[in-house]
């Protein structure tokens, strides 16, 4: 072959097909991203050499050189593999354990949980032995949405309670709920990613700018420091620089009704998600300003009452 390269040279050793969206691990082995996702569901290790692997299979960067070779020399085969991979991804249903939360957690946001119930001790144990992932689900009737949390650190007390640190990575829909055998009530579910609809960054640049402005205004009004206590000490400089991630990041800043937060979490249209986040931010700004206005009116009323009372006492004394 004149080009010196055949498809077998770029074959995935897991699925035995042409690599698609190749990912190279720290140990040097390369496989399809879809194959890595399925492998990480079982063990956090390379499926070839069993070297420990903490890579985020969804977010890990593609191997640029191999991607370039595939697109240059095997364009038709890669297009066909893309179609196959999309079908496989749609049909594949990962199962993850569920953690019921009183809040809605979002991708790209850091989280901390204190787990002490036996079922959640089992969750932590299973996660640490496997892919270090679970789904945080707001405890709302009829809710089928959640956020995958990747555990970054666990601090355990002598009596088995756990302080779990993690980060949201992916919004998902849940189905096929099953209770874990001997799991003290721990439940797992099949998950389906809430993927963004195809769009260009230019489609959302106006709303992106509006959201960034709203965040800046909100932080400026934040005299109590509540938003900085939520991990926003660096302000807008800590925000993601892409519209998709920013919409989640911004939505996690404010206290809005759980129904609104779930609407944002389940929205696959980036522009619509930015609109919802912007409206939530602006609503928070209005409420803060109204609260300050009310406080000022109350203060003026108290001052007026005090002056009137003092004047009356003065006149009565005469």
TrEMBL record:
Superkingdom of source: Eukaryota
Annotated transmembrane regions:
296-315
The lineage is: Eukaryota, Sar, Rhizaria, Endomyxa, Phytomyxea
Q: Give the RING-type domain ranges.
A: 12-50
Protein keywords: Membrane, Metal-binding, Mitochondrion, Transmembrane, Transmembrane helix, Zinc, Zinc-finger
Pfam families according to UniProt: LON_substr_bdg, zf-C3HC4_2
InterPro entries (UniProt xref) = Lon_prtase_N, Lon_prtase_N_sf, PUA-like_sf, Znf_RING, Znf_RING/FYVE/PHD, Znf_RING_CS
Q: Does the UniProt entry include the keyword Flavoprotein?
A: no
Q: Name one GO molecular function term.
A: ubiquitin protein ligase activity
Question: SUPFAM superfamilies, alphabetically?
Answer: PUA domain-like, RING/U-box
Protein name per its UniProtKB record: RING-type domain-containing protein
KW tRNA processing (keyword) present: no
């Amino acid at each position: 072959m004149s080009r010196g390269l055949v498809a077998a040279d770029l074959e995935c050793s897991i699925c035995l097909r042409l690599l698609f969206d190749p990912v190279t691990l720290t140990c040097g082995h390369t496989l399809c991203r879809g194959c890595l996702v399925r492998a990480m569901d079982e063990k956090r290790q390379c499926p070839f050499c069993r070297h420990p692997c903490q890579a985020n299979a969804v977010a890990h960067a593609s191997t640029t050189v191999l991607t370039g070779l595939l697109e240059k020399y095997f364009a038709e085969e890669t297009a066909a593999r893309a179609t196959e991979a999309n079908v496989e991804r749609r049909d594949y249903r990962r199962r993850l354990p569920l953690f019921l939360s009183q809040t809605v957690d979002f991708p790209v946001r850091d989280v901390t949980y204190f787990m002490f119930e036996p079922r959640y001790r089992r969750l932590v144990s299973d996660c640490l032995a496997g892919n270090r992932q679970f789904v945080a689900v707001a405890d709302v009737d009829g809710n089928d949405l959640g956020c995958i949390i990747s555990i970054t650190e666990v601090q355990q007390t002598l009596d088995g309670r756990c302080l779990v640190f993690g980060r949201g990575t992916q919004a998902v829909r849940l189905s096929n709920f099953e209770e874990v055998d001997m799991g003290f009530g721990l439940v797992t579910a099949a998950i389906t990613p809430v993927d963004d609809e195809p769009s260009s960054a230019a489609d959302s640049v106006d709303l992106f700018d509006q959201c960034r402005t709203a965040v800046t205004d909100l932080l400026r009004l934040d005299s109590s420091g509540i938003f900085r206590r939520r991990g926003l000490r660096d302000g807008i400089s800590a925000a993601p620089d892409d519209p998709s991630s920013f919409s989640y990041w911004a939505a996690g800043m404010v206290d809005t009704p759980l129904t609104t937060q779930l609407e944002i979490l389940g929205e696959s249209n980036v522009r619509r998600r930015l609109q919802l986040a912007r409206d939530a931010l602006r609503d928070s700004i209005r409420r803060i300003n109204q609260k300050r206005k009310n406080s000022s009116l109350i203060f003026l009323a108290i001052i007026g009452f005090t002056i009137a009372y003092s004047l009356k006492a003065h006149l009565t004394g005469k």
